[in-house]
Amino acid sequence: MLAPVRTTDPAPGGASGLKADVGSASVTGARRISLTLMLASGFAGLGYQIVWTQQCALWLGHESAAVLAVLAAFFGGLALGALVLGPGIERSRKPLRCYAACEAVIAVWGVMLIIAMQPYSEWMLSLTGGQPSAVRQWTVAFCGTFLLLLPATAAMGATLPAMERVLAGWQHSQRCIARLYAANTLGAVCGVLAAAFCLVPELGLTATTALCVALNAVCAWAAWRWLSAPLAGHGLPAQDKRYELGLVLFGLAASGFLGIGYEVMVVRVVSQLAEDTVYTFAVLLAVYLLGSAAGAAVYQRMRPRETAFARVAGLLLSGLACACLIGTAGLYAGDALKVWAARNMAGSLAGAIGAEALLALVAFGLPTVCMGAAFSHLSRWAAARGAGFGRAIGANTLGAAFAPAVFGVWLTPAFGAKAALLAVAAGYAVLAAISARRLPRLACWPLALILAVALWAPPLRFVELAPGGRLASYREGAMAAVSVVEDADGVVTLRINNRQQEGSSATGLVDGRQGMLPLLLHPAPQRALFLGLGTGVTAATAAEDRALQVDAVELLPEVAQASRFFQDVAAGGAPARLHLQIADARRFVRTSRRQYDVVVADNFHPARSGSGALYTLEHFRAVRERLAPGGLFCQWLPLHQLDADTLRSIVATFLAVYPHGWAMLASNSLQTPVVGLLARNDGRRFDLAAIRQRLAANDFGVEPADYGFEDEWALLGSFQAGPAALARFSGNAQLNTDDRPVVAYRAPRITYLPDSQPGDRLLTLLQEWSLQPGELLQTEDSESSDRLRLAAYWSAGKRYLQVGRNVRPLADPGAMLTQVREPLLAVLRTSADFRPAYAPLLNMAMALASRDSSAAITLLRELARLQPARPEAAEALRRLESGAFESR
């Protein structure tokens, strides 16, 4: 093991006073240990950032908001620590003890946050309120996150200046900024990837924080034990060129502001091309950091002469402006690149994530290499003019701290991604001219290219359009881009970030069923809460109930504005009884004190940013607090976006709060099946007589039969599993909690690499699930014949879905009838109450009537016999036999 490095008293006078009387072998070993410590501290620092982003998203409401707030808090704390503590460290004869103390502070505050994060989040929730204004929300988000992380981030900001001071002393005052920055940033790359792909999914947020705390503690101990030795005074050159020093510090601040602004904008744009999962952000951040580290390493090997500081700075910043333009141009090719990656890199999870890394490399590769080199050069220039590394990194991170708010919250919604990215390139071009004092030479070409892109390039947005389709609406908000597209057939679809489909005019019936079904199961609801708006059809359909007041909560204002395109889908448009709340669903549930008879949660895509937090144990408990006595909670799940393991975790989490819950289907769709988890907070089963009375009363402005709820059998027939079956299905699955967000990290797997068709997953699920009428109905209030009818309905429903999977679409009605006639008739023979199989047979009989009337008559007679309560077949048969059908 390397012995502690000892130094003798320095020789007097200036920079030579930094010379240490140590052997070259010891200095080399100490330098290696120092760089290893910086790599380890970078690993821990970005590990913290991944964890704290996830934790802050729980009260900020959206992962994009958390990314902006934590990014600003990190850089703000780094700047404060470097500016306040850096000068003292530069003058200290024992900078390693300062470094060790900073690492110890980070470790201690990491432990404090493990304890205090939950109560602090609750306080921030109450301070923000259920429906804050945009100014209040973002003020609390940025300031609250900054104060929460400040002790740790300020200490982080002092570690680089401390270690740079140490190495400068050992290396005869040779500044080693680029080497340290490269090592620290390389560690950060490893921290991002390890936290996102291994530590958080396997250990959870608290355990990952504890691991980072241990790493900081080891760094503190190692520095104190093996490298602790007094050094000479700072030995910095006198500040003989104050104007030039101010110019350099301004350049560091401006480049930090522009560099993080570029990062924020690229992440926003790539989220419309990639899958926008927790892995997407981790990959983007890792590529950004890796490029910065590579740029610093390249600069360390080049080390231009000190006499050429201004000229080199101008060239680097001018090249950076061009690199940002190249990266922006690469984003325009994102669609083609995505198609190429899908063709050549598909087939595995690693390949799918590698395709996103390729997108990140195109946008970040060249610009971040230039950023790393430019930062290293400007910092070295500042050091040569008398500014310690603390002031240099403090100026850079201070500028960076303002970028998330300016670019993410203001510039993008106001002017769009294209204008924001061009502003970054223009800023670098102007900065190059100022640094080198040669405006015509260094700025004219980048500015001319920027002007050309601004005039002729289309807006930088990505919206998939089918042939003959058009873009009806596009809005860029602070957290997402929301688009409304219309295809050639007039079907209007709502999308978030081009990837997440929120519904369409073609799904109005199913969307309406998701609102009506839970309400019909409650005997007399007075107030309902809908978490998630989407197209607005679900909540608007529920608000057709004349006795019901409906609150609908939507986080994104742009979604609420886009929902106007779908209001005519619901009967009568959006009723006055529908009250729209622009708020985060988790925050609204936790801060509201209102009680609701029915709470319905939308089928949030579990892999998308922040959605996994809406399936956690803590959120389900908070929803239960909002339920009135006898209240009912329904959580819809998009089975076409879920794998079996993720579904098991969600079901296990739901049952941990609602042990008497059931599962049901929103519709009989095999392409986009939607499963509902439903429970009553009193644990009671359903009264068949009360459901009949509820349907007969019909306080709706629309007919329940129009949504497929003709009678109590159609309503209760939606159920597919009881508490016992769900408990068997979930088994010992890991609960999805705020600390162990297994859904957010597991759900993306099927998004990247689907392992089966949604219909196959649904049928496999139904084979595992079972339900007895006694688990659903109050047996003392139901007749045995009713229970038998209900069981027969469930059996028919499963057979009907199986028939649907085996059907091959055919254009010829006769051939189609031959294929499905007997299977569908067998379904009707199973249950005389099951109606979904009735309509397709009736339609095919009527289509066949003009070609083969005898076959049509035979089929219609069979339909009339199997379901005598339905008049359609008997009426068509009467017309056909009387000859009125042909003349019609």
Structure description:
It is a single chain. This protein has 888 residues and is of the alpha/beta class. The protein folds into 4 domains: 236 residues, Growth Hormone, Chain: A; 222 residues, Up-down Bundle (Growth Hormone, Chain: A), CATH 1.20.1250; 264 residues, Rossmann fold, CATH 3.40.50.150; 83 residues. The chain has 33 helices and 12 strands. An 8-stranded mixed beta sheet has the order 7-6-5-8-9-11-10-12. A hairpin with a 5-residue loop joins strand 2 and strand 3. Helix 5 runs antiparallel to helix 6 and helix 28 runs antiparallel to helix 29. The radius of gyration is 32 Å and the shape is elongated.
Spans with pLDDT under 50 lasting ≥5 residues?
1-25, 232-240, 569-573
- Total number of helices: 33
Major beta sheet summary: 8 strands, mixed
CATH class of the largest domain: Alpha Beta
Integer count of domains: 4
The total beta strand count reads 12
Spell out the key features of this protein.
4 domains, disordered N terminus, four-stranded antiparallel beta sheet, alpha/beta, Rossmann fold, Growth Hormone, Chain: A, eight-stranded mixed beta sheet, 888 residues
